[in-house]
């Protein structure tokens, strides 16, 4: 209720409400708005006129009001020919050419104003070293050669730093390629290792961005289930035998979305299975710097256990530093390095030198260690708040908490419609991710992923859970 609202107050309330509608979606009827906000029709029409003037609302006489769509630029032309051109032609060779980014994009879309985000793949701004990054970028931009072309494989000093960061693997800088973040490194690895049309073994569930890459490259992601100890090795052996796949992609540390850590015994099993199949293992080590303060020391990366060149290691700084610092690395042993380099150079030449220099400035300053400790603490406090709130408010769901990563994977009761829950949650003011896009095949049960790192702090994280609990069946 908004008794006695002026047109201006009401416009503010309505703006917040309408921002949760998709462009083009029909807005509630005037009568419903008058009743809900306790205002007269005159006040409502003044507020609506403001929102029309702002470009948020369009009214169609006799048909109601709508959230405005994207503004049209210039006269509409007939572009239907593109639908034929994008998919026709013998060169498509029976491989679907559409790029399905829907599951992936859903995890990246920002939450509307006033909505708590338990959603998305990057820590909240309050967990980022933005000030230190700005200072590092300023110094980097003035370094000699920062704006020229760097070596194609990356700046030597940064390659050496990554080689040391990939702890226990005894790599040197010549076995490292600087990449433009994890997503780009994964795409390079898949394109280098498997031809279009081939199967690629992936964890089930897994990161939707990986599924999007495999499908965009015309590959067939084949699910291998994950449990509390990571990949199920006996099923991996079966999947290699059944598909003859030459690539497995896995996240041994704080797997997204389940948070599982591959157990010691299974690490050996995964490497053995891949070696026997003559296959590569792409190790997506996205969460190496997201260990919580109560976590035991994390196991070394899988590439540290490998002396045969089986593992292609992917490392990224975006989660620990900032999504805007799109710098990561690919590390490998053997001739595969040349292939990786060729694919990366053909696709994107090199990672901007100024960004590479920014990383060197950042990680070389004492602020980096302080930031990593603050990040670990911030993640731990948010996780603890979400765990307590779920236990208190939603005792029937089955969350599995891990002392690392940025999310919790929550199993809902069988038969729950996870999309309906995620939709109702958004209307109640909290954004969560439904489980479906994380599965390469049929999901065994309904799930939600709650990315608590995205909240401004433990209080907001607990508030998000309270809003979610209110709509759980
Ligand atoms: C498991 C996993 N791998 C890779 C990425 C890609 O991250 P970036 O390209 O920002 O390094 C993400 C991002 O959410 C992720 O969750």
From TrEMBL:
Q: Which residues form a coiled coil?
A: none
Q: Where is the HTH gntR-type domain?
A: 4-70
* Keyword set, alphabetical order: Aminotransferase, DNA-binding, Pyridoxal phosphate, Transcription, Transcription regulation, Transferase
Any Pfam family the entry gives: GntR
Molecular-function GO term, any one? DNA-binding transcription factor activity
- Annotated family: In the C-terminal section; belongs to the class-I pyridoxal-phosphate-dependent aminotransferase family.
Identify this protein by name: DNA-binding transcriptional regulator, MocR family, contains an aminotransferase domain
To which species is this protein native? Answer: Nocardiopsis flavescens
């Amino acid at each position: 209720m908004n008794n006695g609202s002026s047109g201006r107050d009401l416009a503010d309330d309505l703006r917040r409400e309408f921002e949760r509608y998709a462009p083009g979606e029909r807005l509630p009827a005037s009568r419903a708005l008058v009743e809900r906000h306790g205002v007269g029709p005159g006040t409502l029409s003044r507020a609506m006129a403001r929102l029309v003037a702002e470009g948020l609302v369009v009214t169609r006489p006799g048909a109601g009001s709508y959230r405005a769509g994207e503004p049209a630029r210039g006269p509409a032309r007939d572009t239907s020919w593109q639908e034929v051109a994008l998919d026709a032609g013998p060169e498509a060779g029976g491989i679907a050419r559409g790029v399905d980014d829907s599951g992936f994009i859903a995890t990246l879309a920002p939450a509307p104003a006033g909505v708590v985000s338990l959603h998305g793949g990057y820590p909240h701004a309050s967990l980022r070293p933005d000030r230190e990054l700005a200072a590092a970028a300023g110094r980097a931009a003035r370094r000699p050669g920062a704006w020229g072309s760097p070596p194609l494989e990356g700046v030597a000093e940064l390659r050496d730093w990554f080689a040391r960061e990939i702890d226990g693997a005894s790599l040197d800088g010549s076995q490292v390629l600087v990449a433009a973040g994890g997503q780009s490194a994964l795409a390079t690895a898949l394109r280098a290792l498997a031809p279009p049309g081939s199967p690629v073994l992936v964890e089930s569930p897994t990161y939707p961005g990986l599924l999007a890459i495999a499908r965009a490259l015309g590959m067939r992601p084949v699910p291998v289930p994950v449990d509390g100890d990571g990949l199920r090795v006996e099923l991996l052996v079966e999947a290699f035998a059944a598909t003859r796949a030459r690539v497995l992609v896995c996240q041994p540390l704080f797997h997204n979305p389940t948070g599982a850590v591959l157990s010691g015994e299974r690490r050996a099993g995964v490497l053995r299975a891949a070696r026997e199949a003559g296959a590569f293992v792409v190790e997506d080590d996205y969460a190496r710097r997201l260990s919580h303060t109560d976590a035991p020391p994390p196991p070394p990366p899988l590439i540290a256990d490998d002396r045969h060149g089986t593992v292609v290691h992917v490392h990224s700084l975006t989660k620990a530093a900032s999504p805007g610092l799109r710098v990561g690395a690919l590390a490998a042993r053997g001739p595969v390095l040349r292939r990786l380099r060729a694919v990366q150079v053909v696709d994107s030449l090199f990672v901007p030198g100024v960004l590479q220099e920014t990383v060197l400035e950042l990680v070389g300053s004492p602020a980096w260690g302080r930031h990593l400790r603050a990040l670990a603490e911030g993640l731990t406090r948010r996780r603890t708040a979400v765990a307590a709130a779920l236990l208190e408010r939603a005792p029937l769901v089955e969350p599995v908490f891990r002392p690392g990563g940025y999310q919790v994977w929550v199993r809902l009761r069988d038969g729950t419609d996870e999309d309906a829950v995620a939709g109702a949650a958004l209307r109640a003011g909290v954004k969560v991710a439904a489980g479906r896009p994380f599965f390469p095949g049929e999901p065994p049960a309904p799930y939600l992923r709650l990315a608590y790192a995205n909240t401004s702090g433990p209080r907001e994280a607990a508030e998000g859970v309270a809003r979610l609990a209110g709509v759980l069946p």
